Amino acid sequence: MLWTKKYQPQTIDEVAGNGKEKKKIQEWIDQWKAGNPQKPLLLVGPPGIGKTTLAHAIAKEFSEFIELNASDKRSQDIIMSTVGESSETSSLFGDEYKLIILDEVDGIHGTNDRGGVKAINQIIKTAKHPLILIANDFYSKRLTTIKTKCDVLKMARVRSPTINKLLREIAKKEGITANPDALKEIARRANGDMRSALNTFQAIANESDVLELEDVESVNNKDTRSTIFDGITRVLKSKNPRHVKESLREVEEDPTLVMEYIAENVPREYSDKKEIKKAYENLAKADLYFGRANHSRNYGYWKYASDFMGIGVADSKKETYKKFSRIVTPTIFTKMSKNRGKRNLRDRIAEKMSEKLHISHSVAISMFPYLEIMFENNELAWEISDYLELEEDEIKRFRKRKIPKKVITKMEKLKNERREAEKEKRNEELKKQMLDAIPEVEEIAEEEPVVEEEIIPEIEETPEPIEEEKGEPVKEEVGETKKEEPKKSKDKQVSLFDF
Ligand SMILES: Nc1ncnc2c1ncn2[C@@H]1O[C@H](COP(=O)(O)OP(=O)(O)OP(=O)(O)O)[C@@H](O)[C@H]1O
Predict the structure, then answer these.
(1) Does residue 306 contact residue 336 with C-beta atoms inside 8 Å?
(2) 413 alpha carbon – ligand 1 mean position (Å)
(3) CA triple 267-268-274, angle to 5 deg
(4) Is 45 annotated as belonging to a binding site?
(5) Is 49 known to sit in a ligand binding site?
(6) Which residues line ligand 1 (CB under 6 A)?
(7) Interface pTM (ipTM) of the complex?
(8) Whose CA is nearest to atom 1 of ligand 1?
(9) Distance between CA atoms of 228 and 219, rounded to whole angstroms?
(10) Ligand 1 atom closest to residue 158's alpha carbon, by position in its atom list
(11) Where does the AAA+ ATPase domain start and stop, copy by copy (predicted)?
(12) Angle, nearest 10°, between helix axes 180-190 and 194-205?
């Protein structure tokens, strides 16, 4: 059993950390119980600090609860029908309150989003029941309208000593002899994420009942994604050169990739134009040194590059911004992957064309503009696609509109008719060929015994005079014209017997 489940707090008190927030939550519950409806609670904070656990502990104080992951069921209709109705109709539950938990409220994205956010706003407006919303990113745009209607509780990361304390308790319960420094190290590395600490501890403890500091140090418990994100956050959020340098050193990624990330995220974090300019000047210098390292193969230049993109960028701001900016992947990569998708599609089509038409890839690609014109015609589009065996996305390359169903049915019918007609025609040809062959077959049948009888015994007995004797019977009995005739008929018969 996972320790996160086994040791999941059951009451609000058992949830470690965030004392002030827990107090406010208790007051909120008490008010509801006293019959004073309260604003919805919005719990915001980083992952793994116990927001969902808290919501479940709160749920125990109410008669019933319903939980919905807002990012799973995005559409307005679904959210409204699952939560919207039950939030309005108090009669369903008598006088009892039913707690509604909406998790991952900031996870709703895409174009349908507005529907989702609108629905949540609608629920907040009409809800007669206690409502708890959970989100990770306080600055998410999706929360802009929602935040104003809620009591916002910003939940902090769990402090490292608090995590350490819980780990010690668990070690005792599980009978693990753990070096205190090892537990401290797990707590430190978790960076406030209790879930991550518990998972790491359990993973190491699975290997042995004795836990040493080296066991923890040898585990790379963070994936590269979180490490690269941590490194960039440190550059943007810190002004301490040592911290910046250390955290960049931990990033196990291509440093030029890290630079791309920093470049993409600078203007998202810094808002002062002068600071942004300075940051980009440092990035330009970093880029220069990466270039030098590549050309000269002297990777000692990386150190300078790293200092410019790390300490240089960090120091470009006057002060640390008191806001939370989501680190995003450089757009250059999303663009590149989109282009890669396009290139793959192009190559797939070219491959099919070159196979069928016996042309090179580049010639096939050069024909694309003409195909686009040909594809404007529904019938032709269908015929070409059918011939080249194009998939739907490949057809889309040449025409945006789908080939109408009516046209497809018509063309398929036509193809079947043609196939039938061709079969008939071919059968006729075959019939004719076979009938034509009848007299020739008879002639060969008559000649064969004569040739075989005379040649075979003579080859076996007297091999030397073969040439003379072999020639003789042909000249005498078959004659020159007859000798040529079977040759001709043999040519014809190749196709005949093939059938
Ligand atoms: N403050 C805490 N005290 C004790 N245990 C905790 C705490 N935070 C997290 N945990 C442990 O981690 C597990 C996961 O926590 P939970 O799902 O509540 O975090 P969360 O903040 O809701 O994360 P996410 O934002 O990813 O949903 C819990 O089941 C519990 O075992």
Answers:
(1) no
(2) 62
(3) 30
(4) yes
(5) yes
(6) 4, 7-9, 15-17, 47-53, 136, 158, 194-195, 198
(7) 0.97
(8) 16
(9) 17
(10) 1
(11) 37-159
(12) 140
Dist CA 23 CA 228 (whole Å): 36
* DSSP states of 183-209: HHHHHHHHTT-HHHHHHHHHHHHTT-S
Q: Is the CATH code 3.30.450.40 the one for domain 160-219?
A: no
Q: What is the pLDDT along the chain (499 residues), one digit of tens a residue?
A: 788 889 999 999 999 999 999 999 999 999 988 888 899 999 999 888 999 999 999 998 887 787 777 655 444 555 666 665 555 555 444 456 778 888 888 765 434 444 577 777 878 887 778 899 999 888 777 788 888 999 999 999 999 999 999 999 999 998 989 899 999 999 998 888 998 889 888 878 877 778 888 788 766 544 444 578 888 988 998 888 888 888 888 777 778 888 988 999 999 899 999 999 999 999 999 999 988 887 787 777 888 999 999 999 999 999 888 777 777 777 766 666 566 667 788 888 999 998 888 888 888 888 888 899 999 999 999 999 999 999 988 999 999 888 999 999 999 999 999 999 999 999 998 888 888 777 655 555 555 554 444 444 444 444 444 444 444 444 444 444 444 444 444 444 443 444 3
The topology under which CATH files domain 3-154 is: Rossmann fold (3.40.50)
Residue nearest to atom 26 of ligand 1 (CA): 47
Mutate to test the pocket of ligand 1, among 2, 53, 168, 324 (most ligand atoms within 8 A of CB): 53
Measured by CA distance, the residue closest to atom 12 of ligand 1 is 195
Per-domain residue ranges of the chain: 3-154, 160-219, 228-329, 333-405
SS3 assignment, position 390: coil
Tell how far the Cα of 46 is from the centroid of ligand 1, in angstroms. Answer: 10
Cα(296) to centroid(ligand 1), Å? 49
Give the residue whose CA is nearest to atom 9 of ligand 1.
50
341 annotated as a binding-site residue: no
Unique residue bearing structure tokens 């009938």: 435
Provide the 3-class DSSP secondary structure of residue 406: helix
